[in-house]
Amino acid sequence: MVFGSGEYEYELAEGWAKLPEGWSFFDICGLAIDSLDRLYVFNRSPHPLMIFDRNGAFAGNWGDGFFARPHGICIGPDKAVYCTDDGNHTVSKFTLQGDLFRTWGDKGKPSDTGYVQLPELYASLATIKYGGPPFNRPTGIAFSSSREMYITDGYGNARVHKFSPEGDLLFSWGEPGRDTGQFRLPHNIWVDMQDRVWVVDRENSRIQIFNARGKFLAQWTDVVRPNDIFIDNYQVVYISELGHADGVGPRVSLFTIDGSLLSRWGNEDKDPETDLFIAPHAIAVDSFGDIYVGEVAMTHAQLDRGSRVVQKFVRKR
To answer: What is the pLDDT of residue 1?
Structure first.
């Protein structure tokens, strides 16, 4: 089956990920691709970091027992793997082989934002009274061209933190709310070729764009509960949208860097057993232009979809 439109059409690679027997992903929270086009799948199984080659063959794993609740992942310009853990309020840096190099944040000690974790997401977000220091349930990581690190801090905070290339906190911005420059679950982040900072402001259903000093530049609103963003070398912007709001189901959208829609596909929320998407959470694109989408199917629908929790869409040429 073909998805997308125009120059951006894709075929689904059925059964792409070859999981070891008896393993599952449960939820995929983050995806990253290294220089060899291997996919690093950050997930919430007992094996939180799994690696696959571009043909879907299993290439290794690490991180067992380390994370409380995995969330975001990024391979930095130094070829290290950076992971956020919104369960213990930390960000950690690893080698590609999984050796721990450094951790930011006080493990198990969230910063003060007024946040109270309640059973319902929106009720929890409403308890955030003010932006706080790092970290209270951090979500995503990105790097500038000069190797400065940006971290969204996310479920229990409403801020973006900027760190120096040496890993020292420079400054933070953002407060809870709906105005420009405010956030309601900053869920992930990207820095483009112009060093503009793109923040996925999920529960405000928008992408906000800032300069390197945190000054608001623009926002995109043609998205519904966006979860992740990826911008390729051709400046095509890929966004995974959770949907399930405003009559829109889960979907993937592709835009030009100026915000013109290139391609979009998804589905209504009919049957989680058969729907193409349940809850797209992570998105990544390899050097061939193929798209990988990871979902949080267990969290959203209490469903273990096995290897289908990550899907590969192969670009037609």
So the answer is: 84
